[in-house]
Amino acid sequence: MQEFAALGQAADAPPDGYVLRRARLATLAGGEGPLGLVEDGALVIRHGRIAYAGPAGAMPANLGDGLPDYDLEGRWVTPAMVDCHTHLVHGGERSREFEMRLEGASYEAIARAGGGIVASVAATRALGVEALVAAALPRLDALLREGVSTVEVKSGYGLDIDTELRMLRAARALGRARPVRIVTTWLAAHAVPAEYKNRTAAYLDAVVLPGLDRAHAEGLVDAVDGFCEGIAFSTDEIARVFTQARGLGLPVKLHAEQLSERGGAALAASFGALSADHLEYLSPAGVAALRTAGTVAVLLPGAYYALREPQAPPVVALRAAGVPMALATDCNPGTSPLTSLLLTMNMGATLFGMTVAECLAGTTREAARALGLQGETGTLEAGKSADLAIWDINGPAELVYRMGFNPLHARVFKGTRCLP
Ligand code: DI6
Ligand code: FE
Q1: Given a cut of 60, is residue 19 above it in pLDDT?
Q2: Of 85, 86, 87, which is best to mutate to test ligand 1, by the most ligand atoms within 8 angstroms of its C-beta?
Q3: What is the C-alpha separation between 223 and 418, in angstroms, rounded?
Q4: 275 in contact with ligand 1, CB cutoff 6 A
Q5: Is the whole-model pTM more than 0.85?
């Protein structure tokens, strides 16, 4: 049996297969308790996929025959993490607004005064694809260093067709620049740009809807999102965007009930949305609608924290209803300049009252579900992509408990060991 470090890295040819032994597993599927724990575990990886994950003693005899063995020396293995809601691609930063909020200005007041999302638009419009990639890479690398292997990236800081398309081209380029799975989302309905002020319908007609057709035709878009809010788009306006998405066969998701209750979650559920995100002001009727549709509630404690939002999302009601809950960074320059999914889990527990198991499921299995990738990643199960995070910890709770500490030992993406 060899040391795990002997397994070739991303640059080397991926091995046909190998066995990982002396592993402790949190499979998030079969095993003990809600985390699916296996104390003396083994994994068989073949052609980048998991062929077996479970007790070493129950591994089918011939499965690992002829494959090299690697020793994890009792380390913990979880599914690689999934950040299912980010605005990773954008120009500039907004630390000045942070200072204004410290001086007492509200997010809505800053937005109405020409700051907010619209302020990041000019900075993003100024950058070409390469510069957008260069700006996003340090943020992506911060996520990867903590064991993330799948990242959703939204457009929404271009608000004209060319820049929105450029943002998505940059997102796709990130997936070629690093060993990571990038999932793209069309979010032109994020804000109304200055040139369409008070002409929201015209903005939808001229930019959001035709741009979506183009992004789809170019293969740049995996899903469609919008911002349903008093300072952004109404449910009727979002319904137009979602109807277009449905016509193209694209799944939808929505920023809903973040700053006020608008019925966005129920609208999203009525379109069979993959997820409804934020949800601080979600009503009981909204909870019921998500439950019926099987829509994932994506909770974003980074934005809640940065805005010092007085109301937390209704975790108790979501849990009682059995709505799947995911956690994501919402990495964006305005309300969540956060690039740590580990800290996000700590915030989910401390600020929202989620359990350790909910936090870990929320950044793996449920986050994958929020992207429609539940068949591909997010658990340690035979048949899925071999996307693993290997940790130097005493137990999974330590991942949620610590703040500002990164115990990642190694990351495996599609079976290939990557530098942390
Ligand atoms: N909700 C948010 O928290 C971010 N977008 C959204 O729809 C904020 C984006 C920003 O302020 O730049
Ligand atoms: Fe967001």
Answers
A1: yes
A2: 87
A3: 28
A4: no
A5: yes
